[in-house]
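User:
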Amino acid sequence: MREDELDREVQEDQELEEISRRLIIQEELLFNSSSEDEDQLLREFEALKLKIWMAIHNTFPLSSSSGQLDVLRSAVASIQQQEAQDQRWTCRPHDRLPVWRPLNCVRTHNTLLQNMVASRLTKAAEDELSGTHSLSSPMKRQVCRMGKRVKDDLLTVARTVKDCYPPHMDILNIYAGFYHQRFSARLTELAASALGIDDCSYLLLWVNDCYPQTVLKHEDLDGQIKTACLGSLLRQDHLEPLEEQYLSHKEDQVKLWLRTALKIEEDSWWSGDTPEIIDTYYFSPLAADVIQVINSSVTEFHHVIRDQSRIQRITAHLESFLHSYETSMKEFVRRNQGNMDSVVKAHLVCEQQFRKYITDPTGSLTGQQQRHCLDTLSALRDCGYRYFTCPIRMLLKVCYSHLWTSVWLDGELPVVDSLLSSLSRQLMALTDLNATCRESLLTVVHQEVVLQYVKRMMKTKMKKREQQVGGAQRMKEDAQKINDFFKDGGCSAPLWLGDVLCRIAEVLRLQDPGNVQLELVSLARTFPDLSDAHVSALLSLKTGLSAADVRSIRRNLEENRLLDVSTSHSPPFFSKVKVKWINNKINQIRL
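Assistant: Predicted structure:
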């Protein structure tokens, strides 16, 4: 077609609104004058309708040129004029109704749009030249092409076509409804076929994520499309079997991956292999591998499954894995393999990585799953700690047997100096343990050192006031040495452990019953786990107190320990000091 002919045709199309207006005037004149030119007017109306429908049919592709937009705008205005004229004729006698009335232009317009949408999506589904060759199956390529067509056409309507229509027609939602219906119908047909797991996952991805999130919530569409009216692309009875198929497969897949990862690690342990050293410390890839498996599965789940609460079916397998991991590690430690030292060090790092992942507030585990996993990890960590602290406990037992002897009281036997010297040599073996894990382990050792010190002290009988005062002074000196040792070793957190020794030493040093009572109240408020039995054990060391003094101190302590609602409590300590031997004595004092 020559350029001048094209310009002339566009110009004629732009005059549709004027033609429509003229024909309405002629229609009014014709039926008011009883003229016989009805056939001619009918032909002109038919010609008008044909031009209107051609203009609507050429909506896609619609460029932003003013000429094409004016043509569409003129056609839409004509539709509005004819719709208004239909309404006027409904109030007139039916025996004089023109044969072409009502034109029903809006209804015809919507039917035409519906057919256009169906045709465009059918062509998109069959278009093999659309750049989807990277997708692995014909179904994936078909769904992707249709989804892309829906997105592109709705964006064209929102950006260009919508301005050619009056707001009350809400043309964007008319198009959205037709595209939704057609896309839904095709996906329903695909869902009813026997889909493999890859196709099933891809279909769910489009239904639950790509279409509602990427298409309908595109920045140029979000808030304009009535998504609540559209609903899901698949009805629940079609969606549920697909989601169940996906979840069952994903559960089996995750279980297999986790079981395989642990099996590889166990085989390495039992074959005597030594974990690799990374950044000067022993390291195992187990935690990183497992976390990657869970993370990738969770990420995929978020895009594929609509009901996010069902993610527990995936994360529950991390809980099961950790139980198996703990059981395997305990069995390995029990067998005392030659590579145990390096393996335990590597897996203390794993425990730390798992703990960080599980306590992440952005994670997907439920509160109950978190608690169960953390309990399991604590048992796993304690298993590793026991391996390193058992020899230290033996050392403490030997060294602390000399506490509260006369040579210790006189300063002739430096018990704690000797202990810390031996301990330093043992802790040298931890240089290839991850720094954070090492500090955490040192905290446990520090607590064990203080704990055993207090246990030994509570079993001591000090008959003389000089022994109590001298022992209290020696305790304070020992507390400072112990604190300095662990602080210098890189353990900065538990400085309160030194404080507990000094506070107990002060109870020993004081002789006035009133001062002893005040010190015990302060101690109980700082350490709420200081029980009745512990108080009685401490008071039993004070041989200068009468039975009446003891009863008065204990009674006043119970009345005053809870008056101060302080939040600056120290961590549990005394609850780890077992003093069952004193229970009978408590009962005697109460009598």
